[in-house]
Write a structure and sequence with these properties.
101 residues, mainly alpha, Multidrug-efflux Transporter Regulator, Chain: A, Domain 2, three-stranded antiparallel beta sheet, 5 helices, 8% strand, Helix-turn-helix domain-containing protein, HTH_17
Length: 101
């Protein structure tokens, strides 16, 4: 790898690292942060499938709260079978308490 390529790669990693400290992201920053292409992000916005904000004055620029994006990205959690079993036992126990009470 050439010296220039190595420098660019390190700058890229540093830029990605610094995104983790921002609380508000643009479409371009969200693309880097999430790995989604900007075009796909715009599609999600147009279908209201992703949390986003616009400027109050009706500006066209989109902004994304990193905290909301993190929750959205992790929203499709799939539980392990042991977690599902534990949840089922907990639900049954609560149902039985209600019936007895």
């Amino acid at each position: 790898m050439e010296k220039n390529e190595l420098i660019l790669e390190k700058l890229n990693r540093l830029e990605n690292y610094l995104l983790g400290f921002k609380s508000i992201l643009t479409v371009e920053e969200l693309a880097v942060y999430s790995g989604y292409k900007p075009k796909y992000i715009y599609q999600l916005v147009s279908k209201s499938l992703i949390p986003f904000h616009r400027n109050q004055n009706g500006g066209a620029k989109l902004f994304f709260e990193k905290k909301a994006i993190d929750q959205w990205l992790l929203g499709g959690e799939h539980k392990t079978s042991s977690q599902s079993t534990q949840d089922a036992f907990h639900h049954i126990a609560q149902s039985n308490r209600r019936k007895k009470g």
